[in-house]
Amino acid sequence: MARMVETARDHTLSINAIRILALDAVEQAKSGHAGMPMGMAPAAYVLWTEFLKHNPRDPRWFDRDRFVLSAGHGSMLIYSLLHLTGYDLPLEELKRFRQWGSRTPGHPEYHHTVGVETTTGPLGQGISTAVGMALAEKKLAAEFNREGHRVIDHYTYVLASDGDLMEGVSGEASSLAGHLRLGKLIVLYDDNNISIDGSTDLAFTEDVLKRYEAYGWHTVRGVHGEDLEAIRKAIREAQADPRPSIISVKSIIGYGSPLAGHHKAHSDAMGPEKVAATRETLGWAYAPFEIPQAVYDDYRRALPKGEAAQAEWERRLEAYRQAYPELAAELERRIAGKLPEGWHRVLPGFTTGEKMATRASSGKVLERIVPALPELIGGSADLTPSNNTRTPDMTDFSDANPAGRYVRYGVREHAMGAALNGITLHGGLRPYAGTFFVFSDYMRPAIRMAAIMGVPTVFLFTHDSIAVGEDGPTHQPVEHLMSLRAMPNLWVIRPAEANETAAAWRMALERKDGPVALVLTRQPVPTLEHADPEGVLRGGYVLSDVENPQAVIVATGSEVALALEAQSLLAEQGVRARVVSLPCWEAFEAQDPAYRESVLPKNLPTVSVEAGATLGWERYADKSIGLDRFGASAPYAVVYKEFGFTRERVAEAVKSLL
To answer: Residue 553 in contact with residue 580, Cβ under 8 Å?
Structure first.
């Protein structure tokens, strides 16, 4: 094993503390990944003790640097750093690594462990989310900073592994970051040439830094993982460069252990003999989880340093308040995540009978709310005209125009989803962006991460059903509604028409504890006479009732109009049917039982109508009209008719239950 170079010797004890804490925690849990923390301990030590602007006593102060452990399997690295630098993460929690109820889960979790900026673990998501954080910093700095008053000025640092950079999402996100010249984004690349299977040469022989040069990044090649001065120099160079930066840190996985440099060091407990041998090699003479006071003294310099940094920022913010009181008030409102009082009063109303696709009515809603909510930042994955996501007064976010409010994500749905989460997590902005609903498949990992973290990202999807028509089954969502409804903590909202769409936007922006998927039509739908925005906010409501109903037709989206047609036909045949619009199952389930029963009585036979998979409708319906096969290419009206979405079929289904 290579010896620690001379420049690291003065800090050996502190660096080895990270290594041994990781080793001890994994050994005690009999589970985990100590190899990466052991290899990257020197780089992490330099970053956290010399460069990272943070305050362990106030982990959420706004102008802190963000640190993202994209290689989330090495979670003991960040847990060790948080504990050692003085965050509220006691040593007892490290001893309970990966155990029930601990604050040290197997992968870092946002809202669960203090100081963790985003949930990581699925490789590639962390670095891609960090791109959104850096984008948000650049946007807010351009919007709020004034000459002599820099109130937004921080970096986003990432520790990424070979696995992160193999995943396609990181390539998409890194390409976008280079295009936008997100110069405050700095990635430390754990370039140890090892993955779970063995040497990365088994599957990964590209020149990563040449790829990043092609993306437009500043690159630093081959920094020795034990050379603290070289690491310092590389970070300083990165800070000075206007491009995003990636620093190749040539580390040794499992440094100090008998498995150093071997793929078996990647994960799992090493066993008592190898742990003892590692202690001897590193000269660590302390018991498991015993940290000498000198180590704490070294790391806890972060406490006065962090308090001083925050105090200096607060002085700058006070001077900013005096010079620009309106801007300061706006910034503080945005930092607090509060919407302007009564903002929803700007939502438009739509005239009954007018036919309009809900993607179009969504665009008209945005024309009203974008000026009223300056925190909104929109975007699309190269489908702006189809998604109706850009309003006339929005300008494009770019390096030349960083105050712009519209992001051209390009054909990068994977990265767009992760970047949206990063913008949300950063704070001060409320992002939304659109693509076709079928491509929610590409965004699903990011949607799931948003749901796990409980962050209010808004994902906008258009072209929501077989009504996509001529483009055929590759572009016609069938299983997607039910697939997303199966995801915990995600609200899926499929409005029936224009006024429901306006209410859906209100729901999306007022939700604080989880993401929302807005699902909108390509084809025009009629604006309905009795659409009830307040009912939409409750997830579902009686849209059209009759005296003493014999049955219920429940529908979502464009099929609500079809349900009304079937209701009229049934009335002609002497059958009384209620029509219920159910745009958001999740919000409806959150209502009290009495309300749910008043809308969907259990004693009334019920038919559901939705142009998608029927799986799941058994929760509400006795019979379902849907589509449990893929679609077909033809004009949408023909597709609907051929697949049986007709008023006659709905009426027959109702009568079959009577």
So the answer is: yes
d(CA 40, CA 31): 19
Per-position DSSP letters for 154-212, written without gaps between them: --EEEEEEHHHHHSHHHHHHHHHHHHHT-TTEEEEEE---EETTEEGGGT--S-HHHHH
What token pair was written down for 482? 């039910």
Question: Quick one: which H or E segment has residue 459?
Answer: strand 458-462
**pLDDT tens for each residue of 61-76:** 999 999 999 999 999 9
Query: Token digits for 172?
Result: 């998409």
Beta-strand relationship, 376-380 and 541-544: unpaired
518, β-bridge pairs: 460, 493
Residue type, 603: N
- Of the CA atoms within 13 Å of residue 178, those in its CB half-sphere come to 19
Burial code (b: 16+ CB inside 10 Å, e: under 16) for 554-591 equals bbbbbbbbbbbebbebbeeeebebbbbbbbbbbbbeeb
612's CB contacts (< 8 A; 6+ apart) are 465, 477, 478, 479, 480, 481, 482, 626, 627
Beta-ladder partners of 547: none
At residue 336, the 3 state secondary structure works out as helix
Helix axes 125-144, 413-426, angle to 10 degrees: 50
Distance (Å, whole) CA 625 – CA 614:
7
Please write the tens of the pLDDT for every residue from 482-494.
Answer: 999 999 999 999 9
Report yes or no: 460 and 480 within 8 Å, Cβ to Cβ.
Answer: no
Alpha helices in 250-399 (DSSP H): 272-282, 293-299, 302-323, 325-336, 358-372, 384-387
Cα radius of gyration (the chain): 27
How far from each other are the two terminal CA atoms of the chain, in whole angstroms? 79
The residues carrying an active-site annotation are 413
pLDDT at 510: 98
Both tokens of 18, joined, read 């990270």
Determine the distance from the C-alpha atom of residue 280 to the mean position of all C-alpha atoms in its chain, rounded to a whole number. Answer: 43
Side-chain half-sphere CA neighbours of 574 within 13 A: 1
Grade residue 2 by pLDDT with cuts at 50, 70 and 90.
very low
- Choose among 370, 317, 329, 330: nearest CA to 348: 370
Return the structure tokens found at 409: 């994500």
Quickly list DSSP for 523-566: S-EEPPTT--HHHHHTT-EEEE--SS-SEEEEE-TTHHHHHHHH
> From CA 337, how far away is CA 310, in angstroms rounded?
20
Which of 89, 117, 69 lies closest to 21 in space, CA to CA?
A: 89
The total of other beta-carbon atoms located within 10 Å of residue 262's CB is 16
User: pTM score, two decimals?
Assistant: 0.97
